[in-house]
Write a structure and sequence with these properties.
- The structure holds two protein chains of two kinds.
- By secondary structure, chain A is mainly alpha-helical.
- Chain A has a single domain, classed as Fumarate reductase/succinate dehydrogenase, transmembrane subunit (3 helical TM bundles of succinate and fumarate reductases).
- Chain A is built from five helices and no strands.
- In chain A, helix 1 crosses helix 3.
- Chain A starts with 13 loop residues before the first helix and ends with a helix.
- By secondary structure, chain B is mainly α.
- Chain B has a domain of 81 residues: Up-down Bundle (3 helical TM bundles of succinate and fumarate reductases), CATH 1.20.1300.10.
- The mean pLDDT of chain B is 93.
- The chains are: A mainly alpha, B mainly alpha.
- Chains A and B meet through helix 1, helix 2, helix 3 and helix 5 of A and helix 1, helix 2 and helix 3 of B.
């Protein structure tokens, strides 16, 4: 069976990207809803309470799952956007090197974000 | 493969349905959020580093400039989340017809607008 692959895509196939995009979306939604409700119900939260929340092991796990999900989700989403719009058909022959430049830039920023985020949430 | 085959989808010249705008905005809000990650991480980092930086960042994001940035970021997040939930609902086979798709797009736009207004109330209240 022939399958078109691309070294800059995340999961090596459309199906795995499709599933990962949804699984990561669910994780990020759980985090967003939880943290929004928490902040709304604790308007006068001080540093000690905020630190205690984020030091709790279950919160640390949710934080790590969320930042890893953000990295995967952004990689897959931006790959789709770049391969749809930065194309030879829309922008001419310069599109291919331009798209590779943007894809590598996107991957680099994603990795910087991920390392920074892991350092914040796991280093507490 | 014939590389000169005609392309009949020129989105610059065709009238787009509401579902297209919901889809394009989903992509635009996603790109905006990629930049907003830097803001969220900066605030998170400062808020957890020390009591001094917690209080400093709290004061900093209370300025009008940062309130606008936070609200814009929350608006992109609210829209992107709602449009994403619409995708998940459709993955379960709900609203897949032409009319269902249009109705779902309308519901998503209204829900996102409500959340964006509420985010503004949260930031400024």
């Amino acid at each position: 069976m022939g399958m078109i692959t691309n070294v800059t895509s995340f999961g090596r196939s459309g199906l795995s990207d499709w599933i990962l995009q949804r699984a990561t979306a669910v994780v990020m939604t759980v985090y967003t809803v939880f943290i929004t409700v928490y902040l709304l119900t604790n308007p006068d939260m001080d540093y000690g309470q905020w630190l205690a929340l984020n030091s709790h092991i279950s919160m640390k796990v949710l934080n790590v799952l969320t930042v890893v999900s953000i990295a995967i989700h952004a990689w897959i989403g931006l790959w789709a956007v770049l391969t749809d719009y930065v194309t030879v058909r829309l922008l001419g022959p310069k599109a291919t090197p331009l798209r590779i430049f943007f894809q590598l830039g996107m991957i680099t920023i994603n990795l910087v974000y991920l390392i920074w985020a892991l350092d914040i949430v796991w280093g507490i | 493969m014939n590389k000169k085959r005609p392309v009949n989808l020129d989105i610059g010249t065709i009238q787009l349905p509401i579902t297209s705008y919901v889809s394009i905005l989903h992509r635009v809000s996603g790109v905006v959020l990629f930049a907003a990650i830097a803001v969220f991480l900066w605030v998170l980092d400062a808020s957890l580093s020390s009591e001094e930086s917690f209080n400093a960042i709290k004061e900093c994001i209370g300025s009008t400039f940062f309130q606008l940035i936070i609200w814009a970021s929350l608006a992109a997040l609210a829209y992107h989340l709602v449009a994403g939930v619409r995708h998940l609902v459709m993955d379960f086979g709900v609203g897949e017809t032409l009319e269902g798709g249009r109705l779902g797009a309308m519901i998503a736009l209204i829900a996102a607008a409500v959340l964006i207004v509420l985010a503004g109330v949260w930031v400024w209240a």
